[in-house]
Specification:
The chain has about 180 residues and is an alpha+beta fold. It is built from 4 helices and 7 strands; from the N terminus they run βββαββαααββ. About 0% of the residues are buried. The mean pLDDT is about 90.
Length: about 180
């Protein structure tokens, strides 16, 4: 009844599902053109594209899984390294405290000095008191040593020397002067 359309049916010749499309001719409506193809043939292009999409998805999933494993391992290694660094720092603190060795570090660009409590005890100060500013440390140095310390510090900051290696006198809490290797 309809001039055109499509339908599916099992072919009696080969037993395969076929899609049939028809259209009646405009000049002779009692005649129709019928075309058929197997359903497998019609869907072959779509199936290739679907397999390609599945393959790309699977490959992407594998890449994400591999990267996730690598990232997890990197995090574990970082956590392990941090734990080892903290343990080493604790051992170093115990060793320096047991040996009554003062250790200090001077961040030249930031002008920050960090020191173990023993450093302050060696100068007769309360270990809880800190002298992390540049002016507080310079105020403790002997006036005759200040020009040399300033010159050596300038050389390190300019990159002409890698480290500071000198001795200077520092004022003890009792007012006496003590030579400190730096």
């Amino acid at each position: 009844d309809q001039p055109m359309g499509s339908f599916q049916q099992v072919s009696p010749e080969d037993g395969r599902v076929r899609v049939l499309a028809y259209r009646s001719l405009s000049i002779q409506p009692e005649l129709a053109v019928v075309v058929s193809q197997t359903q497998d043939h019609l869907l072959a292009g779509w199936r290739k594209l679907a397999w390609l999409a599945v393959a790309i998805w699977a490959l992407g999933s594998v890449v994400v899984a591999v990267l996730s494993v690598k990232l997890a391992r990197a995090w574990q290694q970082t956590a392990l390294a941090q734990g080892q660094a903290e343990a080493l720092a604790q051992r170093l603190t115990l060793a320096t405290d047991a040996a009554a060795i003062g250790v200090w570090d001077w961040d030249l660009p930031g002008q920050q000095r960090l020191a173990t409590p023993i450093c302050f005890s060696m100068l007769g100060d309360d270990p809880a008191k800190t002298h992390d500013s540049s002016s507080a440390w310079q105020a403790r140095l002997h006036p005759d040593d200040l020009p040399r310390v300033a010159l050596l510090t300038e050389h390190v900051q300019a990159g002409r020397m890698a480290t500071l290696d000198w001795e200077a006198r520092a004022r003890h809490a009792d007012g006496s002067w003590h030579w400190l290797p730096v």
